[in-house]
TrEMBL record:
Presence of keyword Transferase: yes
SUPFAM superfamilies: S-adenosyl-L-methionine-dependent methyltransferases
Domain of life: Eukaryota
Keywords: Methyltransferase, Transferase
Domain Methyltransferase positions: 90-174
InterPro entries: Lys/N-term_MeTrsfase_sf, Methyltransf_25, SAM-dependent_MTases_sf
Protein name (database record): Citrate synthase-lysine N-methyltransferase CSKMT
Family statement: Belongs to the methyltransferase superfamily.
Native organism: Huso huso (Beluga)
Length: 253
């Protein structure tokens, strides 16, 4: 089973040292939860609750919006609507308290509707509170930002082929690296392709090597019969390489 491949577990331990250095030092039971059960809502509720502090701070898996804004923003214009009255639709799967969705909302020159979705109500409540307190001003006054408590392996609340840009930073990784998360990762991929517009892009940010992730993406999206997969290296941080896997509907790009 993919989730138990030793390379994936070893990589998670390396990544977790980067992402949760304070937890790894104490080797708490939460670290154990994170290593084995990152597919569980309870694990993440606990993670966000225990890491909550008086003043809000974004937690970003791998890297923050600033590191990838130059890479991301062109996807908004490229997938932009032919119909000028339409908002470009962005969906961040498993947003946690990352600043990616907020950054795109703030900086996009084209009008966007950014949906930040996560299974953890704790993360969603923290984000909603932060946004209501900091009064983020979007560059395009028509842009909108929404937060949704949602299991992203069921995106039936979105119309088919309605989203221009789907983002996944660390969420598929979290599912694949959990004991029982493989099936849910596959379902999330199929659902994301179902809601993705024919001209849209689905970006998965990961530290998993292309020789492991590309065959997985091809086989799981092949079941849905519709995706082309490419990869772009994003650079190396503390010896770990990061990638963006780019999925588009076959025959479109
Ligand atoms: C590794 S964290 C990444 C968070 C964020 N994307 C980032 O870059 O910091 C994985 C996130 O996925 C969320 N998650 C896990 N399973 C999920 C599911 N089935 N549906 C929606 N969110 C999920 C968790 O609550 C957590 O916030």
């Amino acid at each position: 089973m993919a989730a138990l491949l030793p390379s994936r577990l070893t990589r998670f331990r390396a990544a977790s040292r980067l992402c949760f250095p304070h937890l790894c030092r104490h080797h708490s039971s939460l670290t154990h939860e994170l290593i084995h059960n990152m597919d569980k809502k309870e694990t993440w509720d606990r993670f966000y609750t225990e890491n909550r502090s008086q003043s809000f701070r974004h937690f970003d898996w791998f890297f923050s919006y600033r590191a990838v804004s130059g890479f991301l923003l062109p996807f908004l214009s490229a997938g932009g609507p032919g119909d000028a009255s339409r908002l470009v639709q962005v969906l961040d799967l498993g947003c946690g308290t990352s600043d990616i969705g907020l950054g795109l909302f703030r900086d996009s020159p084209v009008p966007v509707q950014v949906h930040c979705a996560d299974i953890s109500p704790v993360a969603i409540a923290m984000m909603q509170r932060q946004v209501s307190e900091c009064r983020l001003e979007p560059r395009n006054s028509r842009s909108e930002l929404r937060f949704l408590e949602l299991d992203c392996s069921d995106l039936s609340g979105f119309d088919s082929h309605s989203v221009d840009l789907v983002l996944d930073k660390g969420t598929t990784d979290a599912l694949l690296r959990s004991r029982d998360g493989g099936e849910r990762a596959s379902r999330m991929l199929c659902e994301a392709l179902q809601v993705l517009r024919r001209s849209g892009s689905f970006l998965q940010f990961s530290d998993e090597d292309p020789d492991a992730r590309i065959p997985w993406l091809e086989s799981e999206s092949g079941g849905a019969g519709r995706a082309s997969v490419s990869v772009q290296g994003l650079g190396t941080h503390r010896g770990v390489c990061y990638y963006s896997y780019i999925l588009t509907h076959r025959g479109v790009c």
